[in-house]
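A further point concerns the way the authors explain their paired sequence and structure data. An entry of this sort, consisting of the sequence and the corresponding backbone structure tokens, reads as follows:
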Amino acid sequence: MIGDVTYGGLQRAFLEKVNGEYQGALFRMTQGLEAGVSEVNLGPDGAIYVGGLGAGGNWGQTGKLTYGLQKLTPNGGNPFDMLAMRALPNGFEIEYTQPLSAATATALATKYRVKQWRYVPTAAYGGPKVDEETLAVTSATVSADGKKVTLAVNGLKAGRVVHIRSPKPFSAANGQSLWSTEVWYTLNAIPGQQAVTNLALGKPATADSSCAASEGPEKAVNGTVTGGNLDKWCSLGANKWLQVDLGSTQTVSQFVVRHAGAGGENAAWNTRDFTIQVSTNGTAWTTVATVAGNTANTTTHNITATQARYLRLNITAPTSTTDTAARVYEFEAYGTAAPPPVNLALGKPATADSSCAASEGPAQAVNGSTTGGNSDKWCSGGTNKWLQVDLGSAQTVSQFVVRHAGAGGENAAWNTRDFTIQVSTNGTAWTTVATVTGNTANTTTHNITATQARYLRLNITAPTSTTDTAARIYEFEAYGTASNPGRVVLFDGSNMDNFVGSNGGAVTWPLGNGGVEVLGGDIRSRQSFGDFRLHIEFWEPNLPSNITGQARGNSGIYLQDRYELQVLDSWGDTTLANDECGAIYGKLAPSVNAATPPETWQTYDVTFRAARFNASGVKTENARVTVVWNGVTVHNNAQIDGPTGNGAPEGPSVGPIRLQDHGDPGANVFYRNIWVEPIT
């Protein structure tokens, strides 16, 4: 709960994490208290105590007391109100405390009014509200229990405040009227959508000249236009240009230029003629926008997404008057910022000369963990000790990190002493990029000139600084700046080479029916994953009516080999149980039965966020999952509090996708079109 100083009431917040960052909604809870609220406390008696003050301006509600202390005692009632609001890829889910009435649910999309806007940050207190838009609700779907409404809203933009209002009458099934008809959601990011940011904001800027020291090029990338006439870059030079260095190559798809009028100056001084150029090296330039005769305060220039590090604004006619000064309040560049370096080796297929034990195989060196005990490593006692990782495709690699015995808690004298690191694009011709002798450190970092490589190899010539002859590698990490590890196609209908059988051998599931038949034991993907998006399609057989319950086309999709997403013939089943199709088995029932009839292909689109663990291996956050079943969201960022039945134990390591063979007699389930997109 949050106290409102200006309006003398309480507001209630709901938070969720989207793309790893918090955002959420604000609901009005109550108003009309005796003073502007500046302090809120929950007392030992369960009552809410609010303190108020007033000092003029924003610090007090007009016409109310300049101080106050009030006690609000819960009466045990259950008012009809909005309980939560969650962002979706194409709208929102609003959860209510009670089921909607039939009258309210009729033509429900017409019962909502939606606007969005943003605020401009300023050096002053607050900032102006700009870019306000009215949006259309294209559909509104009520959940089976009547308490959740999924809104599809066209035109939502990240970085906006979204205001939704439900004008009365808007009632619950018991006749209660909606307590608060408004909600404000701060949409910093849209789920499943990469954030589009102003890449030029705060970056180093240079120019041909400046009218004054206070009107330098840095003013055009400071994110504000409201700081007065000096909050701009100004130039009187013969060749007027402004240049921004993004620091690294980024993907740019839009430019926005805010001219004199945007800063409150004479609109006739808006930049008339100019070009925008991009470059990857600061020498060879490509013109991506040419403008002549402009009179607008702000101009927006959408371009084909292009790679650029350097951006340049060239001005040939600064105004539409005889004034010769160029005035640019902001030069903005929008696109997708390149993510920080990622561990390209994480979860990738790994091989080695040998292993000390089956539990100490090469996969342990690319599982993202060093805290799983002495067996959480690759160990080799072979004569020629080597570890090899296949990245799946050529990637740009610029750094290696090797975590030796001491990093896993073993004797530091067993840290790998002498070794080389090699790279290859084809697995045959190798290039040595790092040579180490006499190492004693627990962890070694090897920065190299960025190079293309698909295959990585660690060759060990002296495994320890003692007479012990075993090599011990807890993690072999490779870092690069690939914008996305890319979609990993696990099954396209042609073969099952990207899976292994339950015994580690080849998969024996037969191809057919446009997919692969579940027959011959569980299978697992060769590659393991952390956070990811999964697409998979399944086909249920049409079984006799005397085959019921868990015997009807039972299979399962184990996320990270830990959490089962149930596959079952649930067509026509009116129950919503945690063992039906769409359930996180034994833990979470789907919100809706979205099944289609047997002998039709169905789809799951899953967004999975792995559980989080601290450096000591203690879980700090549960795994989360969103499941869209045949186009219907049945789990929305739901927490999974532990492994499901027959799932692998939780831990910080990545894990494969497992497809279950339940072993029931009769016709079988089929799968097709399986792919994963790792989320970094």
In short: Residues 2-187 form a domain with the Immunoglobulin-like fold (CATH 2.60.40.1220). Residues 406 and 412 are 4 Å apart (CA to CA). Helices lie at 102-105. The chain has a mean pLDDT of 90.
